[in-house]
Amino acid sequence: MKPLLPALFLGLGLSTATITPAAAYPVDCAILLCLSGGWPASAECAHARAVFIRRITPWPIEPPLQIWNCPMRASFRGQQRPIERLYDIAFRADVPLADLSLPEVSAGLIPVDAQADVDISDAAFDFVRSIRVFEITYQQRRNSDGDCNSWGTVYMGSYGEQGDYSRRRSSISAVPEASDFGIPASCGNYWHRSVFVEWRDYEGTYGHEEVHY
């Protein structure tokens, strides 16, 4: 897919030299497209990535991709391949701006059935299901008696087959190695709080970001 990105972006008038206002398309459609392509260099993808990361920047922590805010059904054209559909969805020039002005959804108000409005079970959309968000809190210290006390919680957010987002309790051992989190070998004062997000693009290339707070 990556070799096709520059040509497709240019064909859509979205070269890095062309700056399109963010309001001209639903940002979640842009996130969907840019994430699939490994965040290629463009003004649109830079904005999409910034929103993707801002959503996991406390507080509150939101799903970084809110696929239910991207009107995929409106762009579906019969026999299109999934990747063709992605480009059509994200940057259609023939959709009135009023139809693209979709509200942000607060993480606390997302209904349990919030998901893509078309079938995305195709393997081409595995990059959506690859996204995982880890909320990590860990503390370690030695008390006055010399005992090593530690406490930690991890919550993991992930996406289901149709892009529905869920959050559940996880474990310290589930935190990916790419995270800055690591339990010290010796018992000293240690405090870690962060939100870590990982993903794989359409070709399976791994990416991640971590926000400390």
Report on this model:
It contains 7 helices and 5 strands, in the order αααααααβββββ. It is an alpha+beta fold. Strand 4 and strand 5 form a beta hairpin. It is elongated and about 70 Å long.
Q: Topology of this protein?
A:
Layout (H helix, E strand, L loop, with lengths): L4 H7 L15 H10 L6 H12 L17 H4 L6 H9 L6 H4 L25 H4 L2 E11 L5 E12 L5 E5 L20 E11 L5 E7 L1
Antiparallel strand pairs: 1-2, 1-4, 2-3, 4-5
Helix pairs in contact: 2-3, 2-5
Give descriptors for this structure.
213 residues, disordered N terminus, 5 strands, alpha+beta, 23% helix, five-stranded antiparallel sheet, single chain
Helix content: 10-25%
Distance between the termini: 36 Å
- Rounded mean pLDDT score: 78
Radius of gyration: 19 Å
> Using DSSP, what is the number of strands?
5
Q: What is the molecular shape?
A: elongated
Note poorly predicted spans: 1-24, 93-112
Specify the biggest β-sheet: 5 strands, antiparallel
Q: Taking strands numbered 1, 2, ... along the chain, how are they ordered across the largest sheet?
A: 3-2-1-4-5
Which strand-content bin applies to the residues?
Answer: 15-25%
